Amino acid sequence: MNYKRLTPAFSMLELTFVIAILGIVASIGAEMIAKVYEGYIVQRAEYKATVKTELAATQIANRLASAIPGTVYRKNSTASTVEEITDDMSLPGDQYTVLQWVSADMDSYNATATPGWSGFIDIDDVANTVNSLSTPGSALATTTAIINNLSSSVPAPAPKIYFPYDANEYNASIAGTTITLSGTGASHIVEHYKLAWSSYALAVENGDLYLYYDFPAIPAVGVGTKKSLLLTDVSTFKFKGDGQTIRFKICKEERIGDDLNITACKEKAVF
Description:
By secondary structure, this protein is of the alpha+beta class.
């Protein structure tokens, strides 16, 4: 007599249950993986937006820290409205898209152990006149060299001298430790001064923030054409002056998709 050995196997019903359970587990796992990936994408976008905004805000603050008081102006996009930063606003705040200032030349000031320009006038020097000023402790040749290297203008722009509580800028030539003012010179000489050769401006154009540079060190002058991109996809750029303090807020969007964007904002006050 022949005997057949029976081999255990799943029935059709058991197979159906197993397939159903595997499908449920797979769907739950796929949903979890999708949520984890979505969270990673959002966190990455938040990080990128935050870092880029922080870097831009730090660059702005560093530049503004060198602004000469009384030379900071705000403008609307057409430059039809030009106001000193401390004046009352004649337009709503979001209509001002340009922040502009004359910057003291900190590049040559900090370049070497002996500053390019010391910022002090020896008012007791008998050689001083309304046109010729003695500025001991200065290496003005360093200032000339750095201006020539940094400016793309040929010849490089002549520096300008600013005195505290004086709204005028004075054209100057520099050599040795002597500053020579052109024209009629300064009507009143004080001990402190700042030297400048370039203005700077921040302008929002088509949603991007640009830094304009290397244009005349004259308050509220036209910004020229030389610029560099500072930050893209800027949704907010607001600024306000109060005495010697300038506050600004900048927000950047990081685009994830058509229906989801991440926005990071940074506020700073510059004294």
